[in-house]
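Hi U.,

Before I forget, here's the chain from the pilot set. I'm dumping it here mostly so it's searchable later in email.
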Amino acid sequence: MSLFSLPIRIEPIDGGFAVSSPSRPERLRHILFGSHRDSFYGLHAEEVKGKFVLSALDAIELFAEPAGLVRLYGEDSDSMKHMAVIREAVDLWARPDLWNDVKFDVHSIVVAVSENEAVTTTIETAILQKARQAAFSYDDLVSLSDYFKEGGWPIKKVQAHPEIHVALRLMEPDDMTDEWILETVVRGARSSSYWAPAVKKRALPVGEALPPKWAHLSEVVSQFQHGLIPFISVLDEAPETFVYRQLEDQQVRDFLRHDLAKLQAFGYDVVLPSWLKELKETKMQVRASAGTNRYKSAAGLEQILQFNWNFSLGGQEISEDQFRQLVDENRSFIRSGDQWFQIDAQWIQEIRKLLDRSEDEEWTVKDLLFQELPEELALALEDEDEDDPLVQFQLQQSLETYLTQLQEKKGFPEVPPSANLLTELRPYQQLGLNWLVFMRNESFGAVLADDMGLGKTVQLIAYLLHVHEQTPTHPSLIICPTSVLGNWQKELQKFAPSLNLHTHYGSNRGSLDLEADVVVTTYGIATQDAELLQQIPWSSVTLDEAQNIKNMQTKQSRAIRKLRGTHHIALTGTPVENRLSELWAIFDFIHKGYLGSFKSFQENYMAPIERDEDDQAKHRLRLKIQPFLLRRTKRDPVLLLNLPEKLEQKEYCALTTEQAALYESLIQESVSQLGNLSGFQRKGLVLKMLSKLKQLCNHPALYLKEPFDDAETMLKRSEKLAGIVALAGEVAARGEQCLIFTQYIGMGHLLQHCFSELYDIDSPFLTGSMPKGQRDHMVASFQAGEFPIFLLSLKAGGTGLNLTAATHVLHADRWWNPAVENQATDRAYRIGQQQFVHVHKFLTIGTIEEKIDTLLEQKQTLSDELIHSSQWITELNDDELTELLTLS
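Structure:
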């Protein structure tokens, strides 16, 4: 009779249950595991936040035993339901005929024992867990099913006899034969020496063969041998004599791989040679030396590699002929001198195939560096410092030097920047130029994956100048998101005005200018005009924000991956090595087929890495992508020595068709009124118009005072909004923080709406009406890293705040007073800031935002009083103001 009842909470988890006791948590371990020997009575039980994690098998075994004087019951209705599932599973588990209802279905089992699906799932899961615990494979379960149906379930250990111990012994061949021996042996309960019948007694029945002192125990030996039949493939029936079987090498290998685990799981003692217990899988070592006859430089990448193979076994050299004989004999256990070695025959066969392939396939230096060398050689090359590798791969010195240089991204031929490049490259940008030109010369695609702010754009522009000044050829194509199309136009005009630029965009884009040096278009247009663009043999094709083609089955991705260029380049600030589907699509663009089909890539890399976190698969993938990928981060201490503490960058965006129409309409309406107004009224109209135009440049919904639609729809109506949201989202995804300043409350709320809906990010908005206490709490939370994006009103957040956690500052709309903008930027770029700060100023092309920005730059030589307010704009005459306002 129970002394007391204990309510417990039961929650289903993957593969089992989580059990807790809110009322008596300190007693639960003792109550649950008090008689559970396998967990050392709860010592090894897994506890997570007060909950014991039980596999389905644990739950069945624990609840099969009574909990002493304690009655366990479900604390709530859900727990009672789960408790009932476990109780029913316990009853079914012990049923002698359970296995009559077990079916096998393509590496899974189906148990039809209950109408309750949760019960059958628990039973099925527990059987598979019991199999893993016993080291059974799926095939082992299939082969044992008849045994289980005949009463061998649940698995029970063989009971020891108090007088005699019976075992199965495996003995290695002696010097005169290659045959192994598998035999039944016995010893006294207190003895350590085993006895087996002499040769002349092997044919006698068990009772007659035993010594007189054990003759009365013949039934114990016979029962032991009878129990072996389901588990040993070489025994068809229980012999009346002592088991004595001669085994060939293959039979021994099968016994060790398949039978041994089953025997030990059921408690049968198996005596193995002591050396076999301690033996590693193989002691065979293979060394492959690769070189060429005339290799001198990178120009020899098509030369065929010549291989020299060497083999050793236990430190003793063997010839290639001896190795091939070993393969032909398909031996698993080999004696060399006075030592035995276990050889993985399948591995030996793979090495033989490797030898044959090295002779038949004629691998080149290019294959060695970048393409499909066998995995055994690639891994061996990477792990050359390992103490005892199974495969050693050595390179001719010139090859090894070249490979090291390429992997470490140094030692490339220097490429002098063009005299027409109107900027100075930083040292790491010069390295990027050298690398891009080298990859082009060797016909290798390239992924330039530098962090935002490190100047991928200027590195590519320097590359384009070099290419088009060295050998006039076909145009180069740049494909980018619509939101940065204007940025590419401006940067090319600013840094390389000598390049003939053609922008292929818009509904009236017409035919391509094939006399241009550079053609810039968007992903959308490239998809629409795919047939046209695919016909042109481009000098180079560059994808900016290359992750846009990550969905490889989309029309856009397929169309772009079919483009033909002498050189393919991908630009991305995203760490592509962590986004595997994106990685495959990008590499399929820069070097088609290099990572295999997407299906094989899923099987070989995505599933092992994303599902199983397989370190070896990660390692193999890093080896394959390393030569093609140049990635530098702002946290690299070497780069930080060469970077300014603050980088200011203008982000140019085009107006959408809707914005442009509204802009023109507003300008026409306002300019027509200017001539009829007095000076004071005129100033008022100009200032009001400026505010409306800036809101319109941000988003037409702000200008029209419309309610917000869904985020995706709102982004389509404003490239500036799309650019800000994408940039801030990328910053947050990288684990960094940013500030976004705007003059308009509506713009702040619109950004909050987009971040919440698209990224599930709560981005607080600090405005002038916010109480000081709330304001201080927001600042402290941001500094503590509690949220990645902080929106601020330019006036409210422009002074008095310390926000040094931010590494990016985004100005959504321009203030005509540079001092106000600089004060806002200095919330992040100030004393105490230990990180590089990247400032992004968003401008709409051809609008008043861009024109006033140009005027401000021209007026920097004038007095601060002139430019530090917007009043100077109102002083312009009608012609100057009309020119300033006209959309170009």
